Automatic annotation (TrEMBL):
Complex and partners: Homodimer. Heterotetramer of two MnmE and two MnmG subunits.
GO biological process, one term: tRNA wobble uridine modification
Organism: Spiroplasma platyhelix PALS-1
Function text: Exhibits a very high intrinsic GTPase hydrolysis rate. Involved in the addition of a carboxymethylaminomethyl (cmnm) group at the wobble position (U34) of certain tRNAs, forming tRNA-cmnm(5)s(2)U34.
Localisation: Cytoplasm
Residues the entry annotates as binding (6S)-5-formyl-5,6,7,8-tetrahydrofolate: 24, 84, 123, 448
Main location, first listed in the record: cytoplasm
The protein's name in its UniProt record: tRNA modification GTPase MnmE
């Protein structure tokens, strides 16, 4: 906030050798400063225009031929005067232009500062600002879809619809109590309010459930590959990742530490961890690896237990089945290429060595996505801040429902609805001190 009036500059593209680099500038002095080092007069340049010319060092020496994309406040991403310099993508060229602009009095932008200015200038709300980061770092289709929805107006409109529904309930109560002579709003009864609050609570619970699932999908499902030594865990990890990430050997205890990787399975990602084989051992280093494996099992959201299908189950296999009995797991019967001796219901047969794992991938998809979610059309809030507000909203609406059913007066219960309404505003970063009475009376007829 201290430097919000500065004119800022930063590379908007990666600082690597490439065909084109983009240097972004924003602030009130954008045009006057760039004009000093550009070959054409741009002080009166109109917004939403492109202009070709040269950047020079102020002494007549050309640095690069560039194209300026010009934007005028408030019709820019940040809401300020803004220019994007499209220059040739050499690291040296990009650095020289940025250094030149800094010497003119611009300041290097902080991380996220362009988006921060867009938020402070009411060009985007907090949900949209957070969606920018989600879009950049999206690793699966579901995250991409929800980020696109949040970046545009879709998610904001759905939140506003929720807010409007809640405000309608609050308005009914307040007008009935404070303005009984106004007959354009339906009278509130305990029964009608209880029904309306419960319907709203059902909406919030569904949004929260689907949002929590989507957050797991966004971050990647923590998946542990476990089994006794030499059943093919590392071969399975390599097959899933399609690379030789883990060392494969017939020697038991080869994997002594955790080996990790990440794969994209369309709508979701897996954070894979190949664990050390779990068995009784006197080897102190192997014991450490086994302890780590058990800790990973405790935290995993999905477990793939690998067993050797060319042999019968052993005590070690049965011990592992007991260990994961209350977890979300899949049993993969491996080494089918050696001949199948193990007959066990509810398992997935694979050959990791032969890369025959398609049926396992389908089983993982079925196991992870157990709830049907429409990523294109649902309200999904997927970061910790947003979900924390959803928790509080659910808590307040639940409290209102409970007290209504216990016979508490509607005019006392409405305070919980007002808290939930303020929390919906906070999700978007709106001022929760918006005058509630003003919002209520906006809904009255003209002339009332």
């Amino acid at each position: 906030m201290k430097y919000i009036n500065d004119t800022i500059v930063a590379s908007a593209s990666a600082l690597v050798n490439q065909s084109i680099s983009i240097i972004r500038i924003s602030g009130s002095d954008t045009y006057s400063l760039v004009d000093k080092v550009f070959s054409k007069d741009i002080k009166q340049q109109k917004g939403y225009t492109l202009i070709n010319g040269y950047i020079h060092d102020g002494k007549g020496n050309k640095i690069d031929e560039v194209v300026l994309a010009c934007y005028k406040a408030p019709k820019s991403f940040t809401g300020e005067d803004s220019i994007e310099i499209n220059c040739h993508g050499g690291i040296l060229v990009t650095q020289k232009i940025i250094k030149l602009l800094l010497n003119l009095g611009m300041r290097m932008a902080e991380r996220g500062e362009f988006s921060k200015r867009a938020y402070l200038n009411n060009k985007i709300n907090l949900v949209q600002a957070e969606a920018i980061n989600d879009l950049i770092f999206a690793e699966n289709d579901a995250t991409l879809k929800t980020a696109i929805n949040s970046l545009g107006s879709f998610t904001t409109n759905l939140i506003n619809n929720l807010s409007d529904d809640l405000l309608a309930l609050i308005a009914q109560v307040n007008v009935n109590i404070d303005y009984p002579e106004y007959n354009d709003i339906e009278a509130v009864t305990d029964e009608s309010m209880t029904t309306a609050v419960d319907q709203f609570l059902t909406k919030i619970k569904t949004i929260k459930e689907h949002s929590e699932i989507t957050q797991i999908i966004k971050n990647g499902v923590e998946t542990a590959i476990i089994g006794k030594p030499n059943v093919g865990k590392s071969s399975l990890l390599n097959a899933l990742l399609k690379e030789d990430k883990a060392i494969v050997s017939e020697i038991q205890g080869t994997t002594r530490d955790l080996v990790e990787g990440k794969i994209n399975l369309g709508d979701f990602s897996l954070n894979l961890i190949d664990t050390a084989g779990i068995r009784e051992t006197e080897d102190q280093i192997e014991k450490i690896g086994i302890a780590k494996s058990k800790a990973i099992i405790a935290k995993a959201q999905l477990i793939i237990l690998v067993v050797d299908g060319s042999k019968e189950l052993t005590k070690e296999d049965y011990d592992l089945l007991k260990l994961i009995a209350d977890k979300n797991y899949i049993i993969a019967v491996n080494k089918t290429d050696l001949g199948l001796k193990l007959q066990m219901e509810g398992t997935i047969k694979i050959s990791a060595l032969k890369q025959d794992i398609n049926n396992l991938i389908q089983a993982i998809k079925n196991k992870v996505v157990t709830t049907k979610i429409d990523f294109n059309n649902e309200l999904l809030l997927t970061n910790t801040r947003q979900l924390a507000y959803l928790d509080e909203i659910e808590s307040n609406i639940s409290q209102a429902s409970e007290e209504l059913k216990n016979g508490v007066s509607v005019d006392l219960v409405v305070v919980y609805l007002q808290k939930a309404w303020n929390l919906l505003l906070s999700i978007q970063g709106k001022d929760n001190q918006i005058n509630l009475i003003d919002e209520i009376f906006k809904r009255f007829c003209l002339g009332k």
